[in-house]
Design goal:
This protein has 15 helices and 17 strands. Helix 5 packs parallel to helix 10. It has a 5-stranded parallel β-sheet, sandwiched between helices. Helices cover 49% and strands 19% of the residues.
Length: 457
């Protein structure tokens, strides 16, 4: 695993020491000796993790971290604050500034490297989501990234897996005002509970009498539903090796008993903020994909989806020697509707037509807006004669009831012409199938409109 690490410290010897350690692990190292330079480097270059000293002149590490986390362009970069300060209040201050971790000098090499590698993995996931979501700046990505997911009235839903009653009671008291906490005292039951409930973080104690907490962490990381669920380990003094192993397995954070309430809530807030951020990115990706294949006006699939999926349906029908039919519909004299009632009125007609069309086709049929006022329905496992009857039913459905247009609900008569074609045995193709349906539609239009024509060949 390689990554670009920015080391920020005003003391050259400290910078050199960390640089040597990181280079030995094959990381690429950037350096800065003050806060403004560090911010500029993060804004202008690809930085995967920032190792940030707290005690610097002019602008201290807390302010640097705060500025990085408040900028949508750099807020996703993990920040590890490294300092000689060892008070809980200092750690909490750093975490509240947005830091992802807070390590005290002198830093154990193994602990530092394991933590860096863990954060690099998380950064890689976020980068992939950001890349997918920001293929264009027009989908609202800047507004999305600037949101503060840690604020708001919604308390995070958190699961605590701990068999010790006294420990459970302490955690419940600490998180009483900051989280909606569920408790599982049995680790196996806790695993299923975590898999079945949409938690935003799970806290796992290492103090089980006859169960390895890291086994539970590994199981949660291997299950699709909990693969990205933040895990925080609650460990005892002297369990450093277990914590390091947990970080290698993919836990997100840890606390060592006795647990300080402020540090617990600050670290929990950090994990929830990152999860909500990544969840929003995933939702944005899903929405972008949907927008690419769904017609925004009618809610039907668009031509792009038809062009990619029709070939699949055609090939499947040929391979299975099953029938396949296609109908192309065209709203009659639609231009006059737009001219008379405006494009808003035309949109009302298109939406209502799509609703009636969807009502009269099966779930396995593929209904698409082909463009303008033309729509295509692909009907798997449907003979030509049956497809013609379906087309006639749709034509009648359109003609029998007027369409409402405009805010005043004025109604107008609308009719539709339909062309139908079916798969031919032998050397047929998608292009030929669509061409026959298009010719049938042309014949229906030129023959007086408001009719169905089926082309057998």
């Amino acid at each position: 695993m390689t990554a670009r690490i920015l080391v920020v410290d005003d003391i050259p010897a400290n910078v050199r020491l960390l640089e040597v350690r990181l280079l030995a692990e094959y990381f690429e190292v950037l350096t800065a000796n003050n806060g403004p330079d560090a911010i500029e480097t993060c804004e202008n270059g690809k930085v995967d993790v920032v190792l940030l000293d707290v005690m610097m002149p002019d602008m201290d590490g807390f302010e640097v971290c705060r500025r990085l986390k408040s900028d949508p362009a750099t807020s996703h970069i993990p920040v590890v604050m490294i300092t000689a300060l060892d008070q809980v209040s200092d750690r909490v201050r750093g975490l509240e500034a947005g830091a992802d971790d807070f390590l005290t000098k002198p830093v154990n090499d193994l602990q530092l490297m394991t933590r860096v590698k863990s954060l690099v993995r998380l950064k890689s996931l976020t980068d992939e989501l950001r890349l997918r979501a920001s293929t264009t700046r027009n989908i609202g990505i800047e507004e999305l990234l600037s949101r503060d997911f840690a604020t708001g009235d919604a308390k995070p839903k958190v699961l605590l897996i701990d068999e010790r009653k006294s420990s459970v009671e302490r955690i419940q008291k600490m998180l009483r005002n900051s989280a909606e906490l569920d408790v599982a005292t049995d680790p196996n039951a806790g695993f299923f509970q975590a898999a079945e409930t949409p938690y935003e973080c799970v806290l796992i104690s290492t103090a089980f009498s006859d169960f390895d907490a890291l086994r539970l962490c590994s199981q949660l990381r291997s299950l699709d539903r909990t693969r990205f669920l933040p895990i925080m380990l609650l460990a005892d003094e002297g369990e450093e090796s277990r914590i390091l192993r947990g970080l290698e397995l993919g836990i997100n954070d840890y606390l060592i008993r006795p647990i300080d309430q402020h540090e617990l809530t600050a670290r929990l807030r950090t994990q929830v903020r990152r999860k909500r951020y990544n969840d929003q990115l995933r939702a944005s990706v899903a929405q972008t994909i949907e927008m690419a294949v769904i017609d925004g006006l009618t809610g039907l699939h668009n031509r792009r989806y038809l062009d990619s999926h029709l070939q699949t349906l055609f090939d499947r029908a040929v391979a299975r020697r099953r029938p396949l039919s296609v109908m192309i519909t065209d709203l009659d004299r639609f231009k006059s509707i737009n001219d008379t009632y405006g494009h808003d009125g035309g949109d009302d007609v298109l939406r209502e037509f799509a609703r009636r069309l969807r009502k009269n086709v099966r779930g396995i049929d593929l209904a698409c807006r082909f463009g303008g006022e033309e729509f295509v329905v692909v009907m798997p496992d449907t003979e030509g004669a049956v497809a013609e009857k379906v087309a006639e039913r749709i034509r009648a459905e359109i003609a029998q009831a007027p369409f409402a247009v405009g805010k005043d609900g004025k109604t107008i008569e609308v009719t539709v012409s339909v062309g139908v074609s079916s798969l031919l045995k032998g050397t047929d193709s998608v292009a030929a199938l669509m061409k026959r349906a298009d010719l049938a539609l042309y014949e229906a239009k030129s023959g007086g409109r408001n009719r169905v024509v089926a082309k057998a060949a």
